[in-house]
Amino acid sequence: MATTTAERRRELRVSELERLRAGIGGRLVSVQATPLLGGIDTATYRLAAVGPDSKVTELVLRCYRDSERERAVERARRDEALLRAISIRFPFVPRPVLGDPDGKLLGEPLIVLTWIPGSPSRPPRSMTARSHWIDEFARPLATLHAVGASDLPTGIRRDEPAGAVLAGVEQRAKDDPISRPILAALHRLLPGMTLGPPSLLHHDYWWGNTVWAKGRLTGVVDWSSARIGDPRKDLALARADLAVSFDLAATVELAARYEQIRGPVGDLRFWDLVWAVVARQSIDQWLTGYRELGLSSVSRGEAQARIAAFAKQALR
Asked: Of 66, 86, 137, 261, which has the fewest Cβ atoms less than 10 A away?
């Protein structure tokens, strides 16, 4: 993982841009790159690729700057294969233009994607705007979960069983008065846990990984965590994030809108509580992502209180 924001936002050198131009091909005359905000373990750039007729094509470059080289290579290779497979079925995904998982061009694994116009849109505070925003936010998630395992590359990873997920979460959990009852409830819920029909999960679906233009959600980005699993896990993560960055009512509204599109989802408590524990562990990382996208009004203490309220809602 890149250790600083400056490293993830560094300008590309002229020699690197020239190698990108040659790699992308298509008789390009030049390529310019502008660092983009967002992302914690990747560096993302907006590319302006100029053709011989001076026409500019917008693209996106993702460089995988993970501290573990093998992991970065695997992520880049997996992302490219997945995006090529689902871009014909899921209209909100960027399409790969160039893949270089071995890092031959820039010395680090990378992928070049089509540009989806727009930018992340944080939840609005206006009551008149929030309903539309939640409708837009729910629609791609419900559409994504209609993609079944048979539609996906054979190499896509499958999520761990619920018991293994709980074991991993418990191992990293804080031993405090808030986490202890959550973990106890998870152990009570686990024996009766039934998984939903396996489908494609984004596994990091929050508004910072969505692209909006003219009030519409037009794209979903950052597919490095995608896998096959229980769709309720994806929905619960989106709810946990809204509990922190929006409010508890938004978590209820999101589930209701999702069910209007996909049908009843069943019991969300187990996955809600899993993500509540994860959020408590990762809150500093979450807040860094919020700040980079312009949401700086949520303090660390307030974020922790909102996570506790989200967990309490599930414990009722």
From this structure: 261
Residue 122 lies in a domain: no
The closest of 9, 65, 58 to 32, measured between CA atoms, is 58
Rounded CA-CA distance 195/161 in Å is: 9
Q: Mark whether 244 and 154 lie in a shared domain.
A: yes
100 forms bridges with which residues in the sheet? Answer: 110
CB burial readout 17-27, b (16+ within 10 A) else e: bebbbebbeee
| Residues of the domain holding 281 | 127-315
**Number of domains comprising the chain:** 2
Model pTM score: 0.87
Q: Which amino acid is at 26?
A: G
Buried-state track 247-259, b at ≥16 Cβ within 10 A, e below 16: beebbebbbebbe
pLDDT, tens only, 187-204: 999 999 988 889 999 999
84/184 same-domain check: no
